[in-house]
Amino acid sequence: MQFVRDIEARTLGTRNRRSQTLTIRQRIVQMLGERELTARDLSRKLGLSEKEVYSHLPHVARSLGPGVTIISEPAYCRDCGFVFKDRERFTTPGRCPRCRSEAIVPPVYGVRPLKGKGPPRHTEHEEDI
Q: What is the CATH number of the domain that holds 32?
């Protein structure tokens, strides 16, 4: 995925990727660019606590730059189906506001380009100025 490589290049600067180890946040970007994962999945793969993963996600979202975002499949209630679509926090809600159930499916995260955003595209029909 080209946009993930572009993000890695931007966050790594001029350092050689092979000679340097990636930071935790760079590894999160790389993993979320490859496939969508929950915070628990990330914590297992990175060897961190879920709480620590949640503390990194807002920083990762800000560092992605224009045209790229962390998308999420929002958390939802298993009992009544309520979807937490307007939630801005990355953490899993504790309880459903509709039925008060604690059976909440956690959100799923991934790194994706925004639709209609990104670098400008040049067409073959542009005139030379």
A: 1.10.10
Dihedral of alpha carbons 50, 56, 36, 97, sign: positive
Q: Write down the residue that tokens 């008060």 correspond to.
A: 100
Asked if the model's pLDDT at residue 105 lies above 50, the reply is yes
Count structural domains, the chain: 1
HEC readout, 77-125: ECCCCCECCCCCCCCCCCCCCCCCCCCEECCEEEEEECCCCCCCCCCCC
Single pTM value for the model: 0.68
CB of 93 within 8 A of CB of 74? no
- Give the residue numbers spanning the domain of 24: 2-73+107-113
**pLDDT band for position 65 (50/70/90)?**
confident
